[in-house]
Amino acid sequence: MNCGAVKHETRYFLDGSDRYFSLEGVTFAKAVELLSLFKAGSVTGLPEWETQDPDWKTADIAKISLIKQMPDGLYLLIFGDYVCAGCASRITGRLESEGEKHLVVVGQPDRNCY
């Protein structure tokens, strides 16, 4: 038997949920800010398929699995298990603060169901 080196990852929980998520290059405070904007509906550019469910904000927040800092001030948010059974969404956005802060979706979000 040959085992690889032990890997260490930090996982985060939000609002008492039993679902954990990862952060890459993002502080927990920034993650809370991004998810709060998402939950408040302060997101522009989401496609209709992402918002059809009346509880989409709460449902997707509960499924967050990764928030990653990307180049040029962008953030990648992955909801769901992107490599497992079920549905997952990938959204890339940037924070803007014209008046109120909001998250602007950049590019085309995608959703895959397995």
Write down the domain tally: 1
Mean pLDDT: 81
Straight-line distance between termini: 32 Å
Instruction: Report the C-alpha radius of gyration, rounded.
Output: 15 Å
> Would you count the extended β strands for me?
8
Query: What class would the helix/strand composition place it in?
Result: alpha+beta
Quaternary structure state of the chains depicted: single chain
Query: What is the helix content?
Result: 10-25%
Q: Hey, roughly how much beta strand do the residues contain?
A: 25-35%
Strand count, sense and barrel status of the largest sheet are: 8 strands, mixed
Low-confidence stretches: none
The geometry reads as globular
Q: What's the tally of helices?
A: 3
Order of helices and strands: EEHEHHEEEEE
